[in-house]
Amino acid sequence: MHTAYNIHFLAFICLVFVCLQPAAAVPTLLGSRSWLPARISRWIDGFNRPQPTRGCDKPTSNRHLNEDTQSFVPKEEERPANEIPSYVLDYAPLVHLYSGEKFWPCDIAEHLEHVTPYLNYTQIRATSEHLNLTNLDELNQYNNGRYVYLTSDDNVEARPDWLGGEKNIPDTPDEDATGGGRLAGHRNNAHQQRPLVSPNEEQGHPILGGRSSAPAVLITVDKPGNITDAFWFFFYSYNLGNLVFNIRFGNHVGDWEHTLVRFQNGEPTHVFVSEHYFGQAYTYDAVEKIAGTAKGKEGGMGKGKGRPVVYSAVGTHAMYATPGHHPYVLPLGLLHDETDKGPLWDPALNALTYT
User: Fold this and answer.
1) Whole-angstrom Cα distance, residue 170 to residue 344?
2) Tell me, what DSSP letter sits at residue 283?
3) Which tens digit of pLDDT belongs to each residue from 183-215?
4) Strand, helix or coil for residue 350
5) H/E element holding 272?
6) What is the pTM of this model?
7) How far apart are CA 75 and CA 62, in angstroms?
8) What contacts 245, CB < 8 A, 6 or more positions away?
9) pLDDT tens profile 104-143
10) Contact by Cβ (8 Å): 146, 10
């Protein structure tokens, strides 16, 4: 059986487009369930929006207005456009995968070796000529890729090894280990995985999450108000749908999920998770964190800081801020996701980065 996943492939492209949109104001308390294509940013954009100076001196190029105190504070130092800010990795999310998961994170590059593009049910590329990360954009020549979908070359019901991604289960780190590795340079080169280094070794920070051989995808977007949005995308080769009255709905090949961490002036302020029923956003202080895993800007931990912890639901991989039972759409919990404190994945240890 050949299974298509045009919906999720196109959804990822749309999400990348959303990432590049400017900030827009929203209420301070988050939790809106507005329609997703109205832009994810509407849930979280525009917090601490700069206000007119109202008689204050005009800020210089290296200062910005602190809205709370109406005073000017130094602006974050300029950095190369293709460089990932260090604080994005310091506060990267840690992901609890489900303990009973059957379909683990996968490498999108390997996935492309097992799928063939189709347009209107017609194969448009030889099965022997698989696409890769450097030429995947060639599909945009077909009406901007609108009706193109990628189909598995294998019978997915036979559960080929590449579909389950078992080899990508995060390592179990030694509790006494230090270092842990980060992406060297944090430069924009999304077609190669970076060599690992251990910049935290001198600080003696313990490894807290395991490394998966399946890279996450990190996209950072700078916005007005000294805001940086860090989108962490997670790819799975297969989505196992949930059961309703013992009938399974929603199986499909190719599954993108994501978590966003918003920063202002280099400090984390909000977290968005792609849970079912249009996602959910939280203030940074509201989410679970593992304390002591990120350093404050002055070299010590900021108040209430730490890396955010998120949860990947079994089968569907929808993202949640808490473990447990998560009903959606149908009444009485007939349709629901399940999360728990399974293997802890640190996506900052292996990622493809874009700016």
Assistant:
1) 7
2) E
3) 433 333 333 333 333 333 334 455 578 999 999
4) coil
5) strand 267-273
6) 0.71
7) 5
8) 334
9) 999 999 999 999 999 989 999 999 899 999 999 999 999 8
10) yes
